[in-house]
Amino acid sequence: MEYIGKRPMLLCGILSVICAAAAFYFRTLFIIICILIPLILALMIIFKVKAQLLVSALLTVILLFSCISTVGDINRFNESDVLNKKADICVCDITYESTEYSSAKVEVTDGEIEKGTKLSVTYKEKLYVGQTVEADITAKAVDSKYKEYYYAEEIYLKGSIKNITPIDGKDDFVLKISQKIRDYIKETLFSKISYPSAATLCAIIFGDNSYFTNEFYSNVKGAGVSHVMVVSGMHLSVLVLFFTKLTELIAYNRYFKAFVILLISICLTAICGFTMSMLRAGFTYALIALSLIIDRQYNPENVLGAAVTFILIDSPNAVLSGAFQLSVAATFGILAIASPIMNYIRERELIEKLWLREFVNSLIVTLSALIMTLPITIKLFGYVSNVALITNFLISYAVTMALSLGIIALITNLILPVIADAVFILLDLITNYINTVINIFGSKSFSVTVLPEFFWIIAVLIIIAVFWILLACKKRRYMLKLKEIDEKILNESGKGRRWQQFLKRL
C-alpha cells in the first residue's frame, strides 16, 4: 500500500484499466463500480483527503462517463439495421490492396452518417491514405467473432463503398504526410538492402510487418519477439535518447530538449499510424517533456499511470488492444521489477565490471517484461515461447543499433546518398543477424509450448509471487538497516539504550 500511496496516478491507471475492462467484459461489475466510485469520491471530498488521491478519483469518474458513452455507441450500432447511406469519408489506413479489391479504415467527416463514425470498408477503386471522398456506404454491425479486433480500433461497422467521388481540398494533411514518409522509408529500404532485411526494418521502424513471409512471421512468434515488430515505447525511447543526446552536444536547454522529445513522439506516433501502443508511448514522453518544461522531477510509474488514464478516457476501447496491453504490461514490469533490482545492485556495487552489469541489466529487463506480459500472451495467443528470453537477449542491442542506424541512413540518404550507402551496408549486416537469430530459434520444434487458456491465471499467480518476494526482500533490507542502527546506538550509548529501542519497536 505504501508503494501505491506514493504513486497516485499509477493507482488511477490501474483503476482505469479495471473499469474499462469491466465495461466490455463484466457489465454487472461495471454497474457496481459506477455506483461505488462516485460514492468514494464524495467521501474523499468530505474527509478532505490528499489532493493527489482526489484527482485520481475524479479522473476515474470521468473515465466511467466515457465508458458509458462508448458502450452506448456499441449497443446503438449493434441494434441498427444495415446502413445504406451517402457520406463523406476520410481514408485513415489502407489495410489490404490487390487487383480485385482493397480494404481500408475510414472515418466519416460529413453526410448522412454521424460525423466521426469509423468503419472498415472494401472497395475497388484506387484510394490513398488521407484522401477524402464522397461515397455510397453499405454497412452493418461488426461480427461478434472479430468484434474485439475492430472495437479496439473504435470500429463498430463493417461494409463496402461504391460510387466514389474524390473531394478536392479536403484531404487530411497529417495522414497524407505520414503515408508519404512511410512510402519513402519502404522504397528506400527495399532499393538499398536485401528483401528480408528491408521487411524486418519496416516492422522495426514503423510497425509494418505486411512484407513478412508466412514462414518468417511464424518464426517471429515462435522466438517470442513479436513485440519487437510492433513499434512501442522501446523504439521511441531509442529515438528520443538518440536525438536528445545529439541536441545536448550542441547546447543544453531544457525547453529545447522538451520540444525535441515532444516533436519525436508526435512524428513517430503519426508515422506508425496512431496505433494504441504508440499512443501510450507517445503520451508518456509528452508528460516527460511537460515535466522538463515545468522543471519538476517525475515518477516513471506515475507517468505510465497518467498516460494509461488519459488514453482510456479518450478511448476506453484501447483496453481491448493486444498491443496496448502488452506495451503497458511490459513497461510496468521494467519499472516495478527490473528497476528496483538494478538499483539495489548499483547501490551495493555488487557488480563492478561495466560490461557484466550491462549484461545482467539486459537479462533482468527482458525477464521482467516477459513475466508481466505472460498472462496476456497466454490469453491472446494460447502459447508461450520457450526461447523468448535468449532470443530477446541476443537481439536487444542489435535492434537498438538497427533502429538508430536506419534513421541515420534514411535521413543521410536525402542529403549525402554516397555516405548513406555505406551505412546501409552495415545496416543490412545487423538486420541479417537479427533475422538469423529469429530463424534459428523460432523454427525449432521446442520453441513454443501450447497452453490451455486458463493457464493465464497461473501466470497471474507467478506475478503476485514475484512482487511478494520483492516486498519481502525490501522488508528484510529495512529490518537489517534498523538492526544496524540499533548496534550503532548500543555501541555509542550503552546497554540501557537497547531496552528503549526495543520498547519503541513495540
Model description:
- The structure is a single chain.
- With 506 residues, the chain is of the alpha+beta class.
- The protein folds into 4 domains: 2-78, no CATH class; 81-171, OB fold (Dihydrolipoamide Acetyltransferase, E2P), CATH 2.40.50; 179-453, no CATH class; 461-505.
- It has 18 helices and 7 strands.
- It has helices at 2-5, 8-25, 27-46, 51-79, 147-151, 173-192, 195-206, 214-223, 233-250, 254-271, 276-293, 300-314, 322-347, 354-381, 388-415, 417-442, 455-493, 496-505; strands spanning 83-96, 102-111, 118-123, 132-141, 155-166, 383-385, 448-450.
- The strands form 2 sheets. Strands 1-2-3-5-4 form a 5-stranded mixed barrel.
- The chain is globular and about 90 Å long.
